[in-house]
Specification:
Chain lengths: ~300, ~350
């Protein structure tokens, strides 16, 4: 008997209509996104970039150029053998740019996922519980918002030790406050809905309510922020590589490559020009994509 | 006005409220800055390797290292080190760099105005380009000018600023020789007497127009490159808030009673739209101070950015802590000033 009652009012169960509704609003969003031509262009180029990143080890003409020097081919300007020229120690820049694509995508993904998991958890907990928990967590968040992210990221990375992995951690550690603030305000508005109270009345625990019943409804702004932040995360990692605390040689990272070619600019312009254009293309496409998604989230801004 | 009692009373009350408001905001800044100092202090003790050994050099004997650690107070227990450090900070003593052996606060004094001047110039650039672009976009909503301005701002914001700075520097500075390659002021010239530390203002105060134009000449390119990063959001916010103001019912009324369109836009819409733009500009100030780190590195600008980059490459943590705290103070100040101005612009907001 007790079992039967449980199955009737199972706090786990999400009504079929709610799922339908969620799906419907996603579909409407996808439609609105598809009407935005610039974002579609961004999406198509990004898919192309992803394919390049996956196949880079096979399509790069000199895959060994990622790390190995070739003193016989130093300082060559772009030509038929080396499309983007070669660098100071004879590595093929075209191959290195291709091999750096996957790294850039991985860096962006890692930063965005780490930052959003920290930020969403902190934001959701503080928004849901309110009171002193919220006060404490939000003051903690404020600390990170009082210093420009890049400055703190440089300091964190320097403390953890130079290198691309620590740069990703350092950047993620300063990137989460935006997610925390956004999630908090989302959760605050959703937790007032009667259904949340109903689940609580049925005996749903706090953590279950937050993660299974509130956050799924706050998901689209979080995903959109992840997209709009992706390009800037890539840009920040490149900046750290350029400054010298991020990726270390011989890693084929675009920012570090620009730094490496900087001393020979503009006479040997190709060494830092092509990696810079690669960064630009990737960031630009993510921004186009994010721009379209923002309109989906907030149609008011685009009427 | 008269119906609401004594207007004098009302205004003193309002000023009192502002004072209380500012005081409360200032008090709230203290725990945040304390937290910030704790975080930077803890990460500075996380440093891999041995900063003292690094600073003393590879040939140093253990005795020399010990003496150096004692000299910089690094032989004390860590909580005591923190208390000593904070006691120093309260007297504006940020310690001494292990690497350069120079007092951090002397460097800070020289570098803070340089960064502020660059950031302010960039904000001015970004607003003078971004606000008109946003207005034009909103008046031609979803028509070609709107699309073009949107695409242009996204185009520019996606550039790595350090890369763009490098290219502009060699094109305009080296190749065409239009702008100085690096620095804030001609190397051999005597800078104006220091009053504010902002060279452009100081040279004006000294009545030295040559120096004034020289500083503008030096700052133009770095500030322009830096401003590109803020362009997109200033344009976007101006556009969005203009649209909101344009769709206000009052605009329809004003049009229907025959007020010229240009007058409506200039007199009513712009004013209503400006508060949001103002907020984003002050937020951008912070973003640009971060971007300045990279632009300073390229243009040899003697500001905070170059300082923190050098320090972090040398594992030199005293300057890093000092610079982060200074950024925190500047940021909090800008935020408070923004909120006060916000209340002054928008009479609906009350302090209290």
């Amino acid at each position: 008997m007790a079992e039967k009652t449980h199955s009737i009012i199972d706090p786990e169960a999400v009504p079929q209509e709610a799922i339908h509704h969620r799906w419907e609003s996603w579909r409407r969003g996808i439609y609105r996104f598809r009407t935005n031509r610039m974002s579609m262009v961004g999406l198509v180029i990004l898919i192309f970039i992803l394919l390049v990143a996956i196949s880079a080890p096979w399509i790069a003409p000199y895959p060994e150029a990622a790390t190995r020097a070739n003193p016989l081919a130093r300082d060559q300007s772009p030509n038929e053998t080396y499309y983007f020229g070669t660098d100071r120690i004879g590595r093929d820049i075209f191959s290195r740019v291709l091999l750096g694509t996957g790294l850039a995508l991985r860096v962006g993904t890692t930063i965005v996922f780490m930052a959003s998991s920290i930020g969403v958890t902190i934001g959701a907990v503080s928004g849901y519980f309110g009171g002193w928990v919220e006060e404490l967590l939000m003051r903690f968040t404020d600390i990170f918002l009082t210093v420009p992210g890049l400055v703190l990221a440089i300091a964190f990375t320097a403390a953890l030790g130079r290198g691309i992995d620590n740069a990703m951690i350092g950047i993620a550690l300063v990137w989460w406050p935006g997610f925390a603030r956004m999630t908090r305000s989302q959760v605050i508005s959703i937790k007032e809905e009667p259904y949340v109270e109903a689940i609580y009345g049925l005996g749903g625990g706090h953590m279950r309510i937050i993660f299974r019943h509130i956050l799924p409804n706050a998901f689209s702004p979080i995903i959109i922020k992840m997209t709009t932040d992706f390009g800037f995360a890539v840009l920040t990692a490149a900046a750290l590589g350029f400054v010298g605390v991020g990726a270390q040689p011989p890693t084929p990272e675009w920012g570090a490559m620009i730094n490496f070619g900087r001393d020979y600019f503009p006479e040997r312009w190709w060494m830092s020009t092509f990696p810079g254009m690669a960064i630009w293309l990737m960031v630009f496409c993510w921004n186009l994509l994010g721009d379209g998604l923002r309109d989906v989230l907030d149609p008011r801004s685009r009427r | 006005m008269g119906a609401h009692g004594n207007p004098v009373d009302h205004s003193t009350n309002a000023t009192m409220n502002i004072y209380i408001y500012v005081l409360r905001r200032l008090l709230l800044v203290i725990p945040v800055l304390l937290g910030l100092s704790l975080i930077t202090f803890s990460i500075s003790r996380l440093v891999p390797g041995d900063p003292v050994g690094l600073a003393a050099g590879p040939q140093s004997t253990p005795e020399i290292r010990e003496r150096m650690a004692a000299e910089f107070g690094l032989d004390r227990p860590i909580p005591e080190q923190y208390i000593n450090y904070m006691a120093g900070v309260l007297q504006l003593d940020f310690g001494r760099s292990l690497y350069t052996k120079r007092d951090v606060n002397i460097e800070l004094q020289a570098r803070i105005p340089a960064t502020l001047e660059l950031t302010l110039a960039a904000i001015i650039f970004a607003s003078t380009i971004g606000i008109p672009l946003g207005i034009v976009s909103s008046l031609h909503q979803n028509k070609p000018p709107d699309h073009v301005s949107r695409l242009l701002t996204l185009f520019f914001v996606s550039f790595p600023s350090f890369w763009l700075a490098m290219i502009f520097q060699s094109a305009l500075g080296v190749y065409w020789d239009i702008t100085p390659v690096a620095g804030r002021f001609p190397r051999l010239a005597l800078p104006p007497q220091r009053v504010t530390g902002l060279l452009s203002i100081d040279s004006l105060l000294a009545g030295d127009l040559t120096a004034f134009f020289s500083t503008l000449h030096h700052i133009a390119l770095p500030a322009f490159v830096l401003s590109l990063g803020a362009l997109a959001s200033i344009t976007r916010i101006t556009r969005a808030s203009m649209l909101e103001a344009l769709n206000n019912e009052s605009v329809r009324t004003e049009r229907s009673i025959g007020i010229p369109w240009a007058l409506i836009v200039m007199k009513y819409v712009l004013r209503n739209a400006f508060t949001a733009t103002f907020t984003i500009i002050s937020l951008e100030f912070g973003w640009l101070m971060a971007g300045a780190v990279l632009v300073e590195a390229i243009f040899g600008w003697p500001g905070l950015g170059g300082y923190i980059v050098d320090a972090s490459l040398n594992n030199d943590f005293q300057p890093i802590m000092g610079v982060t705290l200074v950024y925190g103070v500047i940021f909090s100040t800008v935020n408070i000033i923004t909120d006060i101005c916000y209340g002054l612009i928008d009479p609906r907001i009350r302090f209290g």
